[in-house]
Amino acid sequence: MTKGMIIIGAGECGGRAALALRDLGYDGPVTLVGDEPHLPYERPPLSKDAMAGNAPEIKAIASDAVLAERSIRHIHSVQAVAIDRAAHCVHLSDGSSLLYDKLLLATGSTPRKLPMPGLGVRCVYLRTFNDALAIRAHLSAGNRIAIVGGGFIGLELAAAACRLGAAVTVVEAQPRILMRGVPAEIAKIIHEAHEAEGVKILCGDGIAAIADDGAKARIALAGGQNIVADLAVIGIGAVPVTGLAAEAGLTIDNGIAVDAELRTGDPDIFAAGDCCSFPLAVYGGRRVRLEAWRNAQEQGALAARNMLGAGEAHAAVPWFWSDQYGLTLQIAGLSDEGHSTVRRDLDDGAFILFHLAQDGRLVAASGIGLGNTVARDIRLAEMLIARRAKPAPEALGSQTVKLKSLLAA
Amino acid sequence: MSDWVEACDAEDIDEEDVMRFDHDGRTFAIYRSPDDEYFATDGLCTHEKVHLADGLVMDDIIECPKHNGRFNYKTGAARGAPVCVNLRTYPVRIDAGKILIQIG
Lengths: 409, 104
Prior knowledge:
Chain B: InterPro entries: MocE_2FeS, Rieske_2Fe-2S, Rieske_2Fe-2S_sf. Chain B: Belongs to the bacterial ring-hydroxylating dioxygenase ferredoxin component family. The complex is a heterodimer. Helices cover 24% and strands 29% of the residues of chain A. Chain A is of the alpha/beta class. In chain A, the strands form seven sheets. Chain A has a five-stranded parallel beta sheet. Chain A starts with a strand and ends with a helix. The mean pLDDT of chain A is 96. Chain B has a four-stranded antiparallel beta sheet with strand order 2-3-4-8, with no helix packed on it. Chain B is globular, with a radius of gyration of 13 Å. Classes of the chains: A alpha/beta, B mainly beta. At the A-B interface, helix 8 and helix 9 of A face loops of B.
């Protein structure tokens, strides 16, 4: 008898996987288990558009009607507490249990926590819609907002808070913002955009102490400076949610370790999205873990295909974007694979950095500009990266040479 | 209905490319296919209202520049996550080198 498919984690990855199973014609039971009270929803707006209005709204991946129509059972507000691999059974926090033929772990990631104890309502993290609601309530004109960590979530929130009239200070322990994965030339543009809007950015200074008395957050920097804020939002990275997998005896290696088909060491258990590390074919199988919306979506769909026996290897090129003020940043590939860069200037101050490996292969492209000015060329670069192309640096650097023409080469 | 409006010169759009056209408070995207035919759709992606004219045209597909939602621009059909709502299309004709669309 068919026991069906169980997906643990009802975020972008899990939600897409459930829909993909139906798109592929699977007609057995599909159960999506999530620990949040909401429908599966898109997280990227939480640090961007959702903050712009008076109250954040859920951008659902599938409505109740769609879930019902597609016979996807969504169990919300419940955690998976144990996997009995021998019995093909998942135990849930409400005491119930579910049997599976194939199981997908799409447990995502969770904000990395500061090691200081005693932080409460004035020192918060952003991951969920409910986190966004709580943060939005503090983003008003005249309020002082401290952002700990100059990464994407922190900077996007800083931009949103600034637009709402709050006085924003960003604290980054590294010598510059966006140290991880963003070239200095592009980080500088973003840094300047924030300063032009009145955001204060303090780099190269770590936190010595942080306290939350329920009314204010007080931050003491190692360099001696003190910051008092109505709200501190901590955005210092994310860690994969692996506890369930680890307790079930699955291998953890910077995330739940899976093969190119997103399968764990157990042939009936898959993992996808933020929670897993996988071999990235485009860089010779280098094991990576990606925290990105598109990766979550693509891996959710790929996991669904492979749960149904497709045996398809992951082949996508990493891609992500960030919006701050009117600027959009897009990066295809991992720029740390690069050895040299070639710059292509586009209209209106937009530009793209192409990252080339020592043998001339295009391995990544990072672009920034107003609106979606870099989008088309970054997409074409992504295709060139996927083909392991070695385009002539002169052609990449010249705005008069269409990137599309390099694809045909 | 004969509400045809002139959008641009046929030569303004490269083959396998797209151009934005705004008219009377509305925005459209006009496409020239690799086999040199012209098509028109609503200008904004049905997912998050992003201008499709900033996206990439490959064969008969337009891809949203923001989240890679795909549509067949000849039919308006949505072609995969995150888009699930089709794009409205409009009749196009060429008259004396000009592209006209019936915006009805």
